[in-house]
Write a structure and sequence with these properties.
The protein has 287 residues and is of the alpha/beta class. 37% of the residues lie in helices and 19% in strands. It contains 9 helices and 14 strands. InterPro entries: Epimerase_deHydtase, NAD(P)-bd_dom_sf.
């Protein structure tokens, strides 16, 4: 299949790309210097006419849209970057797909679109508000062009190698740190899913398009919540070391998400479930 991928240099994208080697892949990037491998053709959006022409020539059957800005700040500089990445780039991409025979647009959301974890869209941050807005932009082009779409909503991803530090990384760092790592009280309950399972779900969707339900949100998690404090205890147990953390040294952010657990109904309908629980995933990471 002809698959166009955005965000291929990010955490999920760079892990997903090697899993799709049997397909005809092109990657849309915003920076032509991004290193994505020798055998992957790059489409850069620095020239709209060329970008659109190359997409039309490639005529993707599937788009996997992973590109986004996940900056959690609300300053003017951050807002501009978020709009450029999440709103403008997505709009240009969809406009460029008008004259293709696109079958499926696989969008990537965020659990931060659901601040209260009650199933209703209610963004916790500006970047997650922009992801909510992106849904309606996609819907507009879906109605205009006629493709099908799904939203994959990953919960708290861990494992692998990420350019951005995550909460697990800070806890791991604290195991050997002389100076205590300052954290919040650690009461947030999150749904941790290993990058291995995240990538496998994207591959599953691509290879089982006939099983997908159009316009469905697939909440990608385990359905099990673990507090950050509980996570630290588990990491201590696996490593046989005490975490050097100063709990409560940092205040919670405004609208900090205190509970985020994936509802599993949509995954169950696909007969798909993650293969690793949290302890198995952490042991895989430490092995």
């Amino acid at each position: 299949m002809r698959i166009l991928i955005t965000g291929a240099t990010g955490f999920v994208g760079s892990t997903l790309l090697p899993k799709l080697s049997k397909h005809n892949i092109k990657v849309a990037v915003r920076n032509v210097s991004d290193d994505i491998g020798r055998n992957i053709q790059i489409l850069a959006d620095d020239n709209f006419d060329r970008f659109k022409r190359e997409i039309e020539l490639f005529a993707p059957e599937i788009v996997v849209h992973l590109a986004s800005s996940m900056i959690k700040n609300d300053d003017v500089y951050s807002i501009k970057n978020i709009i450029d990445s999440n709103i403008l780039f997505t709009s240009i991409l969809l406009e460029s797909l008008k004259n293709t025979s696109l079958r499926y647009f696989i969008n990537t959301g965020t659990f931060a679109e659901y601040y209260l974890n009650d199933g209703d869209l209610n963004p916790a941050y500006y970047y997650s508000a922009s992801k909510c807005a992106t849904r309606y932009i996609i819907k507009y082009f879906k109605n205009l062009i006629g493709f099908k779409t799904i939203n994959i909503i990953p919960y708290t991803i861990y494992g692998g190698v990420s350019k951005t530090k995550k909460v697990i990384d800070y806890i791991i760092d604290s195991l050997d740190s002389i100076v205590p790592i300052e954290m919040t009280k650690g009461e947030q309950i999150l749904d941790f899913i290993h990058i291995y399972d995240v990538v496998n779900f994207y591959v599953y969707c691509i290879e089982n398009l006939n099983k997908l339900t159009d316009s469905t949100d697939y909440h990608l998690g385990t359905g099990i919540g673990t507090s950050i404090r509980e996570l630290a205890v588990l990491i201590e147990h696996i490593n046989g070391k005490k975490a050097n953390i100063l709990w409560g040294a940092k205040q919670y952010r405004d609208l900090d998400i205190m509970k985020s657990i994936a509802p599993m109904d949509s995954l169950k309908k696909l007969d798909w479930s993650p293969s690793l629980n949290l302890e198995q995933g952490l042991r895989k990471q430490f092995s």
